[in-house]
Amino acid sequence: MQTEHRVIAQLAGQPLATVRTEGTPQSLSEVLDRAAEGTSTVGTIDSDGTQREETWRVFRDRVRLIAGDARRGGLDRGSIVVVAATEPSEILALFWSSVVAGAEPLLVPAELLDDRAGGGEWLAALAEHAPVRALVHARAARFRVVSEALKWGIDPIPLDLDEPGGHDGADPAAAEDGPLSLVHFMTSGSTGAAKVVPQRHRGIIDMALGAVAVNGLDSATVGFNWMPLSHVGGMLMAHVRDAVIAARHLSVATERILTNPAEWFRLVTEHRVSAVWSPNFAYRLLANEAGNIPADASVDLTSIRFCLNGGEAVSARDCARFEDALGRLGLPKGTIAPAWGMAETCSGVLYSPHYDPLADSSPTVSVGFPLPGVEVRIVAADAAEDGLGVGHLEVRGSPVLERYLVGGDLAMGADGWFRTGDLARIDDSGVHFVGRDGTRIVANGVTWNSADLEGEVEQVDGVVPGTCAITSFRAPSLDRDQIAVFCAVDGDASTVRGEVRRCVETIIGVPVAHVVDIPPGAIERTSIGKVRKGRLVRRFVNPDPPRLWELAWVARPASSEVTPAGAQGQVRKPVVLRGRGLVHSAMAGCTPRQLHEVLEHWRHMAEPDRLRGQDVVILVEAREGDARRLPRSHPVAAFLRAVAHGAGARSVRTVWVHPLVHEQELDDVLAQELASAAGARPAVADLFVGPGGDLWRRVLAPVSIGGDVPPATHAVLLGGTGRLGEALGAELSARGLRVTLVGHRARPGSAPADGLDRVFTDIGSTAAVGDLLEKTGWAPAERTLVVHLAGEPRPAPQDALERLLGPKTDGVRTAVELAHALDAPLAVVSSVNAHVAGTGVETYSAACAAAEMIAEQATRIPVTVVSVTSVREARQTDEANVAVAEALGLDEISVLDIASCLLARPSRSVLLGVREDVAFLPQRDGGAQHSSTSDSSDVGTTDETGWSPTVKALALALRPLVGAETVRPHASWFDLGLTSVDLPNLARALAGRTDRKIGVLELMRFPSLAALADHIDDSGKRNVG
Length: 1025
Hints:
With 1025 residues, this protein is an alpha/beta fold. The chain has 30 helices and 38 strands. The strands form six sheets. A 13-stranded mixed beta sheet has the order 27-28-29-30-31-26-38-37-36-35-32-33-34, sandwiched between helices. Strands 3-2-11-10-12-13-14-15-16 form a nine-stranded mixed beta sheet.
């Protein structure tokens, strides 16, 4: 329940009855029918220039046929359906046909469908948390999520949008929606994680009726939208609004205007547009373009009557410049209307029509007053007012959402007030937004609109127009915010930065911490143009970088203490794995096939039953007398660690042993270590037993980076044509580097980043280096950094040699040769799988260890190995594996983290994404369990009276992991001595006993035998019913 706060000010729109009449449509399909009664048209222009215009009636009839096809394709009434489309013509047809079919369309940003944000993880998360069961798309559309939908239990439904109902007996579908039907939108995510917002038809219609009434729009309006239709502004605030009044409407692909702003002027002139809208950034864009257009008859803007400015903070200066620049071309004065809304309010619910920017002397622009049926108020936080009337904005009314479908913390009281997350104040001119994160700067108690400050900076000579972004942020080590200014510079960077700093500091009166000149391509925006300022801060300032660690050997003198005989008797001897390939020098120069043969040998030799529940020691013969000369990892040892952990070993460690160490001496060391681990449970560390019996332990040590390393200007990414390479290449390019991606071919279904050079070659071939030197344009003045990324983490077994082991061995050798030929440093991006048991597949662990070993043998060039955890933009594992990794102390990282690390050029090999408490060799609580060739797990001594059959069946699978006497139905997995690391093995064991799919996430939701058994039994009853 929301805490009551004192209300500072409050506004209410006219009663809803002033716009809602007896004949008002109650559902969106009724809106479409009403529009079809008129003669106006609805048109689209797609990104390739394809145009379509038809009357609302023709459009309505086509939509009905598509809806009939969708129903026959399996679309159920009331189901949530993902609209997979990016072109305006496709989005409108699929949106309206889903509405008419009685389904609930869910519109998603284009970047998700284009796979710019990863490999469909968003769809998996959606299916996990929401009852999404269908995805509609144009039959000719090619989106990766379409092929992946079935994997997440979502049925793709291809539809013919141009000639629907193309078979006998195809009748138009009758509408099945109603006033309580829903439409779903994903928020922009510019201020945090994206959420899915459901809105009822009735609220959408009320918003549209109020907007047309307040702004004087009618059926003679010609509306023009070029913002994405997946956004609430484009679809509801522009398109549905025009449908409600049966007005003519045109929607154009966003990129056509962004890449050629002159197109906006042509279309307004040609179609005699009267109503337009865009966020504030586009006002600057269009004003700049207007200066290039002669004031003649070719452009005529006199038809415009309504210019909505919404979607981000409104700048009076930008509005004034827009009105002046476009006024030369006929734009009437008094047409600008600042507005405010959000997905949670069905788009705009505050409007200030006929705004005069020249007469506005307020530090913030008023967005006016609420629509009919809408109320807003300002409340003081913690029952205290700041003295300026500023407080939290709350809103209620018909257009306000009732709940989130996915994500979001619905800050709404029982009386229906929704807290928006904005700070605002109210005066006689209406609501003024102080802002929210990224849109306001607070200096010496004064709040500044960042859009206004950005406009001032862009007047500085040498600042590229449209590239300035100002934000505040707080570093973890500081107790106050810092201010950062980002802009592209045309001229002497040092001089321009100094002028920018003086400009901002003169206005706000406090120091600016950072002025950063950035490439124009580094400015990322949401689908409606909001700058992702948080990414700029993280990319160029990096106030909270992830910690870097190295694996260091710490010497400990040989102990004279001898483990007592009694204690030795209590410590069961470990399972020791030694033999083929487990010699330090044995794998140093191995070919991919030789490594593969050794791994296959051990795959058959390391029997899981022999390792389950045991302490496992992997012995590597080392010829070094000093542990500090040992490699960081060993491919066969890394393979066996992953195998042992997957088999359920109690603990796993690698022990490097000098040949002069006697067997008895080694046995004593191991007994002493195991006895110590069985007691106080110290961190289980890898060991090196030296020739004099000295003992070294492997520990984590923090690494500091920084200094006077000249930044690279050209990055060559070997293996860069896969998902990670494309994402990392785009990030390095955004930081101003020239980037060359090298690989076999582009990954199928990937979305290549723009502006990157690509060279296709076999990096494992003997001719690769010469081929690269010939094909790539090397400039002597460039500072080149060679980066090795190659190797597919999860190839099919038959492809392991070509796609994993080869790139990780011969491919690294090619990278070394190339770096030597260019006199360039080399960075090998590896994986913590080479060091951490249980976080990846066995062969991948071995391949990463081999890559690190080969790289570290290169002495002619500077070499850095960066072993990383899961990379968000390229992850190929599911959320369950991510959860397990986090339990191990491994954080998911971003390509921003990798790029920052590579450009800092650490002088030693490091681990990235690893926490200080990482369980490198996780050890289970509880005693080790002996395994036997007989199925002793079927025999227990625990009293099972009262246990259900399902609990008994699950207990049989659990006993081999925790012991027969340990199993208790209501004890959590962790109380039974398991850790998060054990959950994948437990899930496999339980699935084998129950013949049903059980995943790690289910084990987390149902954390005991009794809870899981109830879930299984309930699911079975529902399936029968």
